Structure formats: C-alpha cells, structure tokens
C-alpha cells in the first residue's frame, strides 16, 4: 500500500524548502500594476462613499456626536489590502495615494490637497505596522492592527486640521477617536483580510507570495 502522505505536495521537502525561502521585497512590474489597480478600485469606493454617507453621517452625528466615525473605515482600506496582497514596502502608501488622487479628480468635498494629505497619513501609519514586523508577518491580527493605525491616522489628521475633535469640553473627540479606530479594525482590517483570502482562493494571486503563504 502506498503512503498517502507522499501524494500530498504540501508535505514534500520541496514545498517546505520553498516556504523557507526569504520573501523578496523588490518590486516587480506586476506588483506595481496590482497595487495601482487596488488604488483605482478603492478610489471608486471612496468617491461613492463620500456621496452615499453624507446624509447618514449627519444623522448619526446628530444622535451621538462623533459616532459617525464608525463610517470612516470606508476610506481606510486601500493601504492594508494592498499590503497583504503585494507584500512589498510602500504598498500601503502607494495604493492610498493612487486612490486619493483619483478620488480628488472625481470630485469631493475635501479638495485635492486635503484628500492626498490625509491619504498619505493613513497610508504611512498602515504601512508602519507591516514594517514593524519587517514585512514577514501576514495574518488577521497584523492586518487588523494596520487597519486600526490607518484609523488613527484619519483621526490624527482631523485633530491637527480641526482641533474641535479634541476640545476638552466636548465628548466629540474621544467618541470620534474610538469609532474611527474600531471602523479601521473591522473594515480596513478584518474585512480586507477576508477579501484577500477570497481572492487568493480563486488563484488570482498565484504570482504573489500572498497566493501561496497565508499563515503568520
């Protein structure tokens, strides 16, 4: 009787050796194309979110000032998603900037400069999480942490730009901070990790390390 385990390619020494190989951090043309595509797709979502959430935002904020921050995750996900798929330094920043530039070109209430600046802050903070793990740890927890930091960047920009979010006599600031970070954890973190897994299962990421290694 043949040994069944030998028919499993994931149990072979060659497979184990392949996983042990260091992941190259050098960008390829395909990495640039995919990161840009994520940015383009994200820009459309960002632009639509700005239109569709205008009324709900005002309503939610009227109920509990600052609670509308729970919607901010709709503008935070490009960086974490690009990072877990492309897995190259700068992917989060690159995707966020592409998304911001296109969203600004489509037209929004924030204007081009402010849209790009907040995207830069969000992308940098999302990027720092993966950089802290030297671009070697890719799992749900790290992605959620990246989403949280992207939310922190969103809040921090609002703090600097509009000091009202941290006015000592107002509860708006702490509530807005908490809801924005939570939204980043859920939407930009957990949901993007699940989206990545769904895409990987289709075989579309076979040319990427993310298409073969989906563990920590």
Give an overview in words.
With 216 residues, this protein is mainly alpha-helical. Helix content is 65%, strand content 0%. The chain is built from eight helices and no strands. It has helices at 13-20, 29-52, 54-63, 78-86, 91-106, 112-132, 140-161, 172-201. The two termini are 36 Å apart.
Short structural summary:
By secondary structure, this protein is mainly alpha-helical.
Keywords:
216 residues; mainly alpha; disordered N terminus; 65% helix
How big a fraction of the residues is strand?
under 5%
Task: Quote the distance from N terminus to C terminus.
Answer: 36 Å
How many beta-strand runs? 0
Shape descriptor reads globular
Major sheet: size, sense and barrel closure?
A: none
Helix content: 55-70%
Radius of gyration: 19 Å
Q: Total helix count?
A: 8
Structural class: mainly alpha
Q: Look at the structure and give the mean pLDDT.
A: 86
Describe the secondary structure blueprint for this structure.
Elements: H1 13-20, H2 29-52, H3 54-63, H4 78-86, H5 91-106, H6 112-132, H7 140-161, H8 172-201
């Amino acid at each position: 009787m043949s040994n069944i385990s030998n028919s499993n390619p994931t149990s072979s020494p060659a497979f184990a050796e392949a996983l042990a190989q260091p992941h190259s951090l050098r960008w390829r043309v395909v990495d640039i194309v995919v990161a840009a595509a994520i940015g383009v797709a994200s820009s459309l979502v960002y632009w639509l979110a700005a239109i569709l959430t205008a009324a709900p935002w005002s309503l939610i904020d009227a109920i509990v000032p600052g609670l509308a921050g729970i919607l901010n995750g709709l503008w935070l996900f490009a960086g974490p998603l690009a990072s877990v798929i492309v897995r190259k330094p700068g992917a989060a920043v690159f995707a966020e900037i592409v998304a911001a530039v296109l969203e600004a070109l489509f037209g929004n209430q924030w204007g081009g400069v402010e849209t790009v600046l907040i995207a830069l802050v969000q992308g940098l903070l999302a990027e720092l999480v993966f950089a802290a793990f030297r671009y070697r740890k890719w799992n749900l927890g790290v992605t959620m942490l990246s989403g949280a930091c992207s939310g922190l960047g969103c809040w921090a920009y609002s703090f600097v730009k509009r000091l009202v979010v941290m006015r000592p006599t107002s509860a708006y600031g702490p509530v807005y901070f908490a809801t924005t970070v939570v939204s980043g954890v859920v939407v930009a973190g957990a949901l993007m990790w699940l989206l990545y897994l769904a895409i990987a299962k289709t075989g579309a990421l076979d040319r990427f390390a993310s298409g073969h290694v989906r563990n920590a």
